[in-house]
Write a structure and sequence with these properties.
Length: about 220
């Protein structure tokens, strides 16, 4: 197989940021929220997002993996899993300060839409996920040129294998585009978020499905 999964590191951020942009550009909520942001500004924003993600791994339980096309050496997909974690009192204080900081979106962002969507998303996440027990697939992005070639499954299985070994649940937030893939791997809907996009230039109500997967004991991922 010309594709292999490896741990990702900060040196991969420029490539990952490009894939992230390509994967979410057409998203009915996130894509529209930054449809007026220039490509250059969006790229810098995505780079900074991943830079923070790597820098704060010790506070969030984040684990990054990439898929590499071994014939070209190119990174073609990436996932960010959040594994169960615990923090010292000092780390809890450090994380609390970071959590209070409001995100700095690039010029042109639909701030009303972003604030509305992420306020709902974070509230549901806090309700549904236990940081010390559950696994959470936070991000899964595949280059459009490489979709439908099993790369998403490769990255999903990295986290589900660990979750099943720990007899732990796994949580994911899914757009309509990714819902079928997640259901295929055993996730089931437990909740949803609805955003009326007619207030933001769209023509309908969009749903973000919230799913949980129970551990499969004895499974091999």
């Amino acid at each position: 197989m010309p594709f292999q999964v490896f741990p990702a590191d900060p040196a991969d951020i420029p490539d990952i940021a490009n894939i992230h942009h390509e994967a979410f550009e057409g998203d009915p909520i996130l894509g529209r929220s930054m449809s007026d942001v220039t490509r250059e500004r969006k790229y810098e924003y995505d780079k900074q997002f991943y830079e923070k993600g790597f820098a704060q791994k010790h506070l969030t339980g984040a684990v990054f993996h990439k898929v590499v096309d071994t014939e070209t050496g190119n990174i073609v997909a990436c996932a960010k899993w959040v594994y169960p974690y615990s923090l010292t009192a000092e780390q809890e204080a450090e994380k609390a300060k970071l959590d209070l900081k409001k995100p700095s979106y690039p010029e042109g962002t639909n701030l009303e839409l972003c604030d509305h969507f992420f306020t709902l998303l974070y509230a549901k996440r806090k309700k549904n996920v236990e940081d010390g027990k559950d696994y959470f697939l936070h991000i899964l992005v595949v280059s459009p040129k490489y979709q439908r070639r099993g790369l998403g499954t490769m990255l999903i299985q990295k986290g589900l294998g660990a979750a099943d070994k720990d007899n732990a649940r796994a949580y994911v937030e899914a757009s309509a585009k990714g819902l079928g893939l997640y259901k295929k791997h055993g996730w089931k809907e437990i909740d949803c978020i609805e955003i009326d996009m007619r207030a933001h230039g769209g023509d309908r109500v969009e749903r973000e499905e919230l799913l949980m997967r129970q551990a499969k004991t004895g499974s091999v991922q």
